[in-house]
Design a protein that fits this description.
The protein is an alpha+beta fold. It contains eleven helices and 19 strands. The protein is 33% helix and 19% strand. The chain has a six-stranded mixed beta sheet with strand order 4-3-2-1-5-6. The chain has a four-stranded mixed beta sheet with strand order 7-8-11-19, with helices on one face. The longest helix is centred in the middle third of the chain and has 21 residues.
Length: 396
C-alpha cells in the first residue's frame, strides 16, 4: 500500500500544520542546546511524534499491518546542533509522501542503491561522532547500521530529551489542543442522546467515529472505547459490543480527536434508562475527584501529589479500591506522553503542561462511571480545555 494524497496540505506549511516554521526552528535550537549539554553529537529520529514535533514531517495514519518500502529502515532525520536536519528517505517515500515538497536536505535511497552505503555517507556528513542519540522507536536494523556507520560512538536513548521539550506547550499548541478537545466535545453532544436500551456499543462506536471525522478529526487519537461495567458488561472492542444494552446500563465513553497533529482524550458516562440507586452518588464522587485533581494541578506540585489529590474523594467515600488506575497522563502530539500523573512519578509540574484528569469508579457487580478532560497546569489550579457538561446524563 502506498500513501497517495497529492491534494493534501503540505505538512511543513504553517497553514497545513498549524505550527509555524519559526516555532519548529526554535524547537530544534532548544534541542541543540540539550544535545550539547549531554555531550551528544547528533540525534537520529525515525518517523514518529518526535520527528513531527521537531520538523513538521507528518506521521502516517497507523494501520494494522506494516507499510514498508525498500530500504525502509533508513527513513528518518539526522539532527545535530547548529545545522538543519538531514533527511534520509527511500525513493518511494519521497515520491508518495512528499509529492515534490521542499523540506530541506534530503538523501534519497533508491531501490537499487546500496542502502547501507548511502546511510553511512549521510551519517558521515555530520563529522566525527562520539555520542549519538536515537529515537526510542527506531527500527532495530537502523540501530545496527548506526553502530556500523559510527563504530566508535556511544548510542543513547534520545527520546527523553525530546520529551523534555514537548512537556510545556506553547500558546499555539494550546490553541490546537483546545480545538481537538472541542471536536471531542461536539462528538459527545451529538452521540449521548442515542444511548438508550437496545442500542449496541458498536452502534455508539460508529456514531462517535463518524462525528469525529465529520468534525475534522484526522483520525481517532487512539482506539475508541465504549463500554459498561457492573451488573452488565458490554464492550465495543469485544464480541459483547454487538449485543443490545440493558435498561439502566451506564455507558462509559473514552475517545479522542486529532487536530493538526495534536490529540485530545475525553470521557463521559451516560445511563440508558433508570440508573442504579448508587449511580448519582458515585457520579458526584467522581466529579469531586476530578475537580480535586484539577485544583491541585499547580506549578511545583509533584505529579504523585496531584494523583493523590484526585484519588482523595473516592478513597474518603470508601471506594478507593474501585479507582483502579492513575489520575492521568501527559498528552500532546502523542495520546500518552510523560509525565504520567501517577503515584510513582515525583516530577514537579510546570505551567503549560497538559495532561488528562480521568478518575473513575469501577464497582464490581454494581456500576461504572468515568469523567475525563484535559487540564493545563496553571497558577491557582489547572484549566480545563474541554467545555462539555460534566453533569450526569440519564436518558430516561
Amino acid at each position: 500500500m502506498t500513501s497517495i494524497d497529492p491534494n493534501s496540505t503540505a505538512p511543513h506549511s504553517a497553514a497545513g500544520r498549524g505550527i509555524s516554521e519559526q516555532e519548529y526552528a526554535e524547537r530544534r535550537t532548544r534541542l541543540g542546546e540539550k544535545l550539547r549539554e549531554q555531550g551528544i553529537d547528533a540525534l537520529f529520529v525515525p518517523p514518529s511524534s518526535d520527528l513531527e514535533y521537531l520538523t513538521g514531517l507528518e506521521r502516517d495514519i497507523p494501520s494494522f499491518g506494516n507499510v514498508h518500502y525498500a530500504h525502509g529502515w533508513v527513513t528518518g532525520a539526522l539532527l545535530a546542533p547548529d545545522r538543519e536536519p538531514v533527511y534520509v528517505l527511500p525513493r518511494m517515500y519521497v515520491a508518495f509522501h512528499l509529492w515534490g515538497r521542499e523540506i530541506g536536505e534530503v538523501v534519497t535511497v533508491s531501490e537499487r542503491d546500496d542502502g547501507q552505503a548511502v546511510f553511512r555517507k549521510a551519517v558521515g556528513s555530520l563529522g566525527s561522532l562520539d555520542r549519538v542519540a536515537i529515537g526510542s522507536r527506531t527500527w532495530g536494523e537502523a540501530v545496527l547500521e548506526l553502530g556500523s556507520a559510527a563504530p566508535s560512538a556511544e548510542l543513547v536513548n534520545g527520546s527523553p530529551l525530546v520529551n523534555e521539550l514537548r512537556r510545556v506547550k506553547s500558546e499555539r499548541e494550546l490553541e490546537l489542543m483546545t480545538h481537538a478537545c472541542s471536536i471531542a466535545d461536539r462528538a459527545m453532544a451529538a452521540t449521548e442522546g442515542k444511548v438508550e436500551p437496545g442500542v449496541t456499543m458498536v452502534d455508539l462506536h460508529e456514531e462517535v467515529e463518524h462525528q469525529l471525522r465529520a468534525l475534522g478529526s484526522r483520525l481517532p487519537s487512539f482506539p475508541t472505547h465504549i463500554f459498561s461495567y457492573g451488573l452488565h458488561r458490554h464492550d465495543s472492542q469485544e464480541a459483547s459490543g454487538l449485543e443490545p444494552i440493558a435498561e439502566g446500563e451506564p455507558v462509559m465513553f473514552d475517545f479522542g480527536a486529532v487536530w493538526q497533529g495534536y490529540c485530545s482524550d475525553f470521557g463521559r458516562t451516560v445511563v440508558a434508562g433508570e440508573p442504579h440507586p448508587e449511580y448519582e452518588r458515585c457520579h458526584a464522587i467522581t466529579l469531586a475527584a476530578q475537580e480535586a485533581g484539577r485544583a491541585a494541578s499547580v506549578p511545583g506540585a509533584l505529579a504523585s501529589q496531584v494523583n493523590a489529590a484526585c484519588r482523595g474523594p473516592i478513597e474518603e467515600a470508601g471506594l478507593g479500591e474501585t479507582f483502579r488506575h492513575r489520575m492521568g497522563h501527559g498528552i500532546g502530539v502523542d495520546i500518552h506522553e510523560q509525565p504520567f500523573i501517577s503515584e510513582e512519578v515525583a516530577i514537579p509540574l510546570e505551567a503549560g503542561m497538559t495532561f488528562t484528569d480521568e478518575p473513575s469508579i469501577l464497582w464490581d457487580d454494581t456500576l461504572g462511571v468515568r469523567i475525563e478532560d484535559i487540564v493545563v497546569c496553571a497558577e491557582g489550579g489547572g484549566r480545563y480545555l474541554n467545555e462539555h457538561s460534566r453533569q450526569p446524563v440519564i436518558n430516561r
